[in-house]
Design a protein that fits this description.
By secondary structure, the chain is mainly α. It is built from 7 helices and no strands.
Amino acid sequence: MPSINRTQARAFITGRIATPIALGFGRIGMTPNSLTLFGLVIAAVGAYLASIGQFWGAGTVLIFAAVFDLFDGALARATGKISAFGAMLDSVVDRVSEAILLLGLLAFYLDGDDSIGVILVYIAFVFSVLVSYTRARAEGLDVDCTVGIMTRPERVIVLAVGLIVGHWVPFVLQIALGIVAALSALTSVHRVLHTKAALRDRA
């Protein structure tokens, strides 16, 4: 049986599921950019649930947000409204949404005076941002840099599972945060080394 990579899986989901739903949003007057911005509302709901300890709800919202994130791009492609600004806005909203959810977790751990949780959230946030930054900086140098084990989809999966299971087994959430932090750090280093090698080969 032939293997299916991440790009092929995303294309299949977008074509068969996301595009029909996205066109439905388009019929009620929503644009790709408005769908993108609505993702912030979803992220805020997840962050609030996380801040009050409703982790299973936050995890469920995070999964929904990940699926919803496909709709703006699908609508843009289906209606011919693809734009450079829309792509930038989508990337910015992705980063802000991730930060908002982690802010909710930070508020929860601060309220519970849980220093380990606070540290893990902070480290996870720093290296999650660094993963995106190293890619953006590499691409600014005209180097394709999508390498690494802990990109945004993987972070979403790990955090969603950690939140849902962590609602009943709290230490699982901290393990998930630790995994995100450690593998995001590894991915950041991987991208730096990848970019260095690409620039050396080009010279």
